[in-house]
Automatic annotation (TrEMBL):
Membrane topology type: Multi-pass membrane protein
Protein name, per record: OTOP3 protein
Region Disordered, residue ranges: 1-21
Similarity remark: Belongs to the otopetrin family.
Subcellular location: Cell membrane
Chief location: membrane
Amino acid sequence: MSDKKVSRPCHHCKSRSASAPTDTSKIHYEKLWLYRHCSSVQQRDRQAQKAGQLFSGLLAMNVVFLGSAFISSMIFNKVAITLADVWILLSILKVLCLLWIVSYLLGTSRQPHAVLYRDAHAGAIWIRGSVLLFGSCSILLNVFQIGYSTILVHCKSRVEIVFPSIGILFICTQAYFLWHHSKDCIQVQHNFTRCGLMLTIATNLLLWLLAVTNDTLHVEMESQLREVERRLAGKARSSHPHCCNETTLCTCPNTTICKVFQKGYILLYPFNTEYCLVCCSVLYVMWKNVGRRISHHHIPHTKPKFKLQGVVFGPLLGTSAVIIGACVFMMYQIQATTLAPSHQVFVIYYSYYIVLLPLMSVGAVIGTIIHALEKKELDTLKNPTRSLDVVLLMGAALGQIGMSYFSIVALVATDPRDLLNSLILSYSVLLIFQNITQNIFVIDGLHRRRTPPGKEEDTKEVQNREAFSQRRVSVLELGQEIRKASLSYIHSYSHLSWKRRVLREISFFLVLCNIILWVMPTFGAHPVFENGMERSFYGYSTWFVIVNFGLPLGVFYRMHSVGGLLEVYVTA
């Protein structure tokens, strides 16, 4: 009986399958309630994420346009919109950002299941260190501004004291927030968090735009004064001693503390622009990570450590470039502080760049060729931090590339056969080529999978450490131990493959070169303001607009390239 009962359904199944084979060949999972429910939830989640990103992006766009309109009106119509009005608007935005950051720290991040995932690639130590470094310099900048405005309180408004005070609180709170929560993938209050992050990004962008604008006006006034002094040099002074009393009503008195505040403010001013740009990049990664769920295979099990192992020639060449660049920089700064910078100092400055830039370009080209020969797998996993690094490298490089093309057109159209003009022309062409080759090398290296360290190398290091710790080293044995340590370093250097050695040498050399190329324009070496070639061709105002939008991007590019090259060095 049991066999018959079993055989009957089989007979019906065979006949049913023979009559309608198309019904069993397709299983309609969409008719299941669980499948329809899960798919609708996923679709709604994606739609809600896109809608939240769109709304928060529109919020940031409107805030940036409003602030840009205020700043532009201040530049072109100082009577209707003053700098104090712009400061009031930015102070309101800072207060709103502070309220949101405090609510995130005390409320959103402490909710249950708020931070289930953390992006291991976001908030690298060098980025957070840059936030602390530039944030500390920006705090000192605001302190100097408060002290300077307090001394000149008889001719300055109280807004000039209140605005930097709010700025100090904003910088401290934002730096703490980014240091502890830059890796968060928040899972609650998505829209509120996205809007808060975008509002903070927009505020930092407006602060950067105001800083660039103020620096432009400051350098423009300083250069105009220098031109006036050059014209009046050697001529008899006017017989009216009180002709300039109106311009000296709000000048710094002849006291030491006032001069310190003034010089410190001018020295630390470029760091404020870098701080705003770095904060924008970190906040953008946090905005992309809102609601993101990271699977386990995206989480790296071991974090690569930075070791000065396997590099000899890169540090030597890079250190030489840094020392020579520091000497050229000091020589230029001493000469540029005079009323008439000599022609020779410009020749030395541009000659240094003409020698260094081809070396950097050749190194980047060799590194790119080695990447192609390695046949290492590309890392195709979703990584918002890496995507942002690529965008920032390409976007920031446009500053120097754009300035270089403007210089090339001006110099070719005037007199390219002059010595200084030919040096500037060569510098502009080499700078374009160096930026392009370095971007290709860094971006290609960022997309390579990490190379695991050799087991043989690690075990030998552990054995050497254990043997050294267990042995009692006497005075006579100290030289032998140093000799053994040197031999061990040479052995580990030769143990690496030639491709990894060359990549590490090139990466370290480019790191040091980008550091000195970041230091020189950051601390005041701006020959494009002083040589007068492009300024006489484009006109005073036009050239200053070009330079002061391209120069901060160039400084940011050098700083961001250091982080990318360190990543390439670690992954080699």
